[in-house]
Amino acid sequence: MPVGIIQPSNQIKLTNISLVRLKKSKKRFEIACYKNKVLEYRSGLEPDLDEVLQVHSVFLNVSKGQLAPASDLAKAFGKDTSVDEIILEILKKGELQVGDKERKESLERVQREVVDIVAGKLVDPKSKRVYTPGMIEKALDQLSQRAAQARQEDGPAGSGSGAGAKGSGTATPKDGGEGEGGGQQKKEHLPTWTGVVTTKSAKSQALEAMKALIAWQVIPVTRARMRLRVACHVSILKQAVKVVVKKGEDGEEGEGESGKAKGTVKDRILSYVEEVESQGENGGEWEVIGFVEPGAFKGLSDFIGGETRGKGRVEVLDMAVVHEDD
User: Exposed, middle or buried by CB within 10 Å (0-12, 13-18, 19+), for 256?
Assistant: First the structure.
């Protein structure tokens, strides 16, 4: 009398899973993970593999419960590679398989995170007030639409003059020229925004979005300034150093004609500070508190670390100074 159905030893049935798939050596390998845990692991929020994996096995087909033979794993990953190492490689490099509903929810979540980050970092250049997340989202939508329009115009037309004549007027930056080839060349080198993806962190995508918004000025924006405290021993304030341009249009430090000018350590420090709030000496130490463009922070920090020989320091008092609407 039969007592039940015998399941083959190389088959495991799993339900309510997220798949991560990696193709290697013409074979497709899969691992079975708990829903929502893969992204948490990749972002560093969930370090415990036991909380990520449903089973510590590699499959050829998870839905059929078909385990990957040891010979296939050895051929694809190397005979000396352990199963745990193979799982880690698939988990880090593999493609996360999600359904339409999950994909939509994930995109919406990343979109909200990106918009929130951008809204907290960009301000109106004149009022220094932040924009609402809704206004930032609309501006990003305009950028993605322009990028899609530019691809459509450039695709079939190639490098012909037709697309250049049209000029996609809505996609021309405010400082773009109309010289032959000049304005188009400038436009091509500006950062673009095509929308959020789930394969990159919200933080990195927010940086890309901010660069595009600043470059194209769909709405008037600039990076919110940082508020810093810089302290330095008075004995080195008058030492001679080169004074460089503190920032360009993109906020990055750059060498110009003034890069050859001579100045003091104090002059160099103050060249990074856009607005001084207070400065003075106390107990043999000079201190300045002021506002600095984010793009200039690295240059200032590197200068303090390299030129003051341990007698100076930079302290961030506020990462982004903005004026909130009442």
Answer: exposed
Query: Cβ distance 290 to 276 under 8 Å?
Result: yes
CB contact set of 92 (below 8 Å; sequence gap of 6+): 42
For residue 218, pLDDT over 90 is answered with yes
DSSP summary character for residue 176: -
> Residue 46: pLDDT above 60?
yes
Q: How far apart are CA 186 and CA 164, in angstroms?
A: 13
Alpha helix ranges (H) inside 173-293: 182-188, 202-216, 265-272
In angstroms, the CA 88 to CA 92 distance is 6
Coil vs helix vs strand at 69: coil
d(CA 200, CA 193): 14
Instruction: List the structure tokens of 237.
Output: 């304030």
How distant is the alpha carbon of residue 160 from its chain centre?
Answer: 34
Task: Give Dmax (Cα) for the chain.
Answer: 98
Quickly count: other Cβ atoms within 10 Å of residue 111's Cβ: 16
- Using CA atoms, how far residue 97 sits from 19, 21, 36, 324, in Å, is 5, 7, 11, 41
Task: List, for residues 166-214, the tens digit of each pLDDT value.
Answer: 333 334 454 444 444 445 445 668 899 999 998 888 999 999 999 999 9
The per-residue pLDDT for range 51-77, each reduced to its tens digit, is: 999 999 999 999 888 999 999 999 999
**Contact residues for 121 (Cβ-Cβ < 8 A; gap 6+):** 206, 210, 223, 224, 294, 320
Return d(Cα 269, Cα 271) in angstroms, integer.
Answer: 5
Q: Could you read off the pLDDT of 122-132 as tens digits, one per residue?
A: 999 999 899 99
> Tokens 């003051």 label which residue?
308
